[in-house]
Amino acid sequence: MTITITAFESSPDRGQGLARDMPVRWALEEVGQRYHMRLLSFAAMKHDAHLARHPFGQIPTYEEGDLVLFESGAIVFHIAEHYPGLLPDEPYARARAIGWMFAALNTVEQPIVERDTATLVERDQPWFDARLSILDHRVRTRIGQLAARLGDADWLDGVFSAGDLLMIAVLRRLSGSGLLNDYPTLTAYISRGESRPAYQRAFADQLAVFTRGDSPTARP
Amino acid sequence: MTITITAFESSPDRGQGLARDMPVRWALEEVGQRYHMRLLSFAAMKHDAHLARHPFGQIPTYEEGDLVLFESGAIVFHIAEHYPGLLPDEPYARARAIGWMFAALNTVEQPIVERDTATLVERDQPWFDARLSILDHRVRTRIGQLAARLGDADWLDGVFSAGDLLMIAVLRRLSGSGLLNDYPTLTAYISRGESRPAYQRAFADQLAVFTRGDSPTARP
Hints:
- 2 copies of one chain form a homodimer.
- Chain A is an alpha+beta fold.
- The first copy, chain A, folds into 2 domains: 3-85 and 198-212, Glutaredoxin (3-Layer(aba) Sandwich); 91-196, Glutathione S-transferase Yfyf (Class Pi), Chain A, domain 2 (Up-down Bundle), CATH 1.20.1050.10.
- In chain A, 56% of the residues lie in helices and 9% in strands.
- Chain A has helices at residues 21-30, 42-45, 48-53, 72-82, 91-121, 128-150, 162-172, 184-194, 197-212; strands spanning 3-8, 36-40, 61-64, 67-70.
- Chain A has a 4-stranded mixed β-sheet.
- Chain A is globular, with a radius of gyration of 17 Å.
- The first copy, chain A, starts with a strand and ends in an 8-residue tail after the last helix.
- In chain A, 43% of the residues are buried.
- Residues 214-220 of chain A have low confidence and may be disordered.
- At the A-B interface, β4, α4, α5 and α6 of A face β4, α4, α5 and α6 of B.
């Protein structure tokens, strides 16, 4: 069945792979599924046709036959549940891997997105510097706890899972912030994810949207 | 198998049911599973014994035999996957319900938690009023989109699911903010959730921790 996902027509991050289609592309590459892209302008994302797919007018969406899904975490979970390679078979290990998916998106991402939003929309406000130091402290607390749990392990819970995929996608939002400098095990963890062939294929494909400005179809 | 969850020993919200044990209690009541509570002081939450269960030193956790889970979304998902009543059987409807779980925790909760955090820790800052109006606008945008999708329906996608459970738990954080006043269909949606017998049992049990100050064990 043909899989179609949506992404930004023009990359807001200049192809750094920080948009939310990236974890979905990465997951599809990990499980070896072909997919088609539908690229949307910011205006098209707010049109009724797209709001029918995504009530919050965002990307990505996932279409497969009559199934329409939105929300990157849910799409990655759907892929992980239907194709082998992203969740362990053993029930308790599987439950813990799903736990890391929610932890990435609900607990670790929260202060990181708050910091991202501040740097985007509050940079010119008189309070920006004071708030940034509060936000940096909050991010450090969270990623420090994550680093303590990861320790020297390669992945969060044994083998690579959709939990690592989402966690690495969330942590990558901190690149350029300097906040990861004190956590070498986390930068190594991110690099470990980025060096996976599936990640590299997904990254190249999202970058091509920015550099070529046309509509690539992902490789098999 | 005995299920044990953790919660705050002394309720920070004075028993309003806004702590994250509430959706877990509610889910367990919906599927008719007994559970035991382990109540923790704020100090105990940062001890190694609890950090072994929850790397971010928060509540709730879920223990069932050798399985230890943290992250309320993951725990609700685990309950929904293992006991009937919280996810549809039809595969596409099930995937969409899981989509609403992620949407609640990753998309709708983000601006609501950011607003909560500001009212808790930035209230005395000189920028508080200016920021609050930015945050209110952001929350209104998100819940307006949610209201548009919900329309006049009882639940987000047909029958009540774990997606509604988490969405209602997230929206309840806005009680007292006044922000829900313009969205009567959302307040009706919240009330619809709160009037479910399972919700009411869960609410009474978390309230009892605050009013009685002892350690109740939830009813079957």
